[in-house]
Amino acid sequence: MSSAVVPDHPWLLPGSLVPAARVRRTPRDWLVDSLAFLFSVAWVLLAYGDSLQPKPEFAVNLGPAWLNHLDLAVGLLASAALWLRRRWPVGLAVAAAPLALFSVTSGIALLIILFTVVVHRRLTVALALVGWHLVTTPLYLAVRPDPVLPFWAAVAWTLLFIGGTVAWALFVRARRQLVLSLRDRAERAEAEQQLRLDQARQLERTRIAREMHDVLAHRISLLSLHAGALEFRPDAPPAEVARAAGVIRASAHAALQDLREVIGVLRAEPAAGATPERPQPTLGDVPALVAESRAAGVRVGVVDEVADPAAVPAAVGRSAYRIVQEGLTNARKHAPGALVTVRLAGGPGDGLAVEIRNPWPVGEAGSPIPGTGTGLVGVAERVTLAGGRLDHGRDADGDFRLVAWLPWAPA
Asked: What's the pTM value of the predicted model, to 2 decimals?
């Protein structure tokens, strides 16, 4: 005989207790039920004892002797039935309803049953039971008249007891609803927080994957460039072949290292709001990027007109680095052998301008380097998220031009 939570029963208040054979009473339930039973039995014995020796000034049970003996049996039965109130409160209330017409000894048991129904069942059911007790009060006093109080005073006292019980039950009901509401809000907040954490992790991993695309595209384009040179010059001097092979090996090792580090980050569970651990280049890494391309045989010219390179915010510098990296990669793919010009300019408050220019390719030298065609799309998304502007395409001079402007707030 125990209880569980079932929210969708037509008679139940959400979160109310209903039968569940596999759930046992908690120690608190045992304590409350035991006290209710003992309190009811104590009232039964007290009321029956007064009926044996009636005293007009204190009598609570006046009437035929057989009625008092019957009342004793009924009161004990109603007290024992309190152990079923958690399982069948409405059924118990309906079965005990006739006792409200004549029984004195079951008064406490009836109040406890009424309290249980008001707390755990919907108000329509509870109000029906309360209405029955209000209607039967005058009938009860007609059968069991009070020897001390006038009829209407006795009615008032009885209604006061019923009203106090109902008020207490409504208070407990409201408190339970509040606790359930707070618990539901806490669970929803926890679920929403977990969802935000999952979304943050997914966004972080997407950003890392985007960073990895830029890095690998750059590294692999260098590998393809040197491999193509070896393919078209098999008779090159051994020193030049060894130098190209060394660059290929170094680029392959660097690409594998970057890939290993990023995959390690993706396999781990990054904290919400954390930035990618690797790679994290800045504007100060652009010269090394240009030197790497020059070592691969790409002709690159750099015009640096940045007012204060050390003051460039990390996020702006990282975006500028990725734009230059993508521009050099595209030049190696689509205009091999062409002169690439990189121009950086700007300052605090004016923003940072990044321009990569190369002649429009007039033919193909060697095998084209494959690509996904999403590099410029990623750059455009990066610039947009940074609050900047991006323009690319063929200009009036016939050159391919990639221009980006990134906001640089004043210090």
From this structure: 0.43
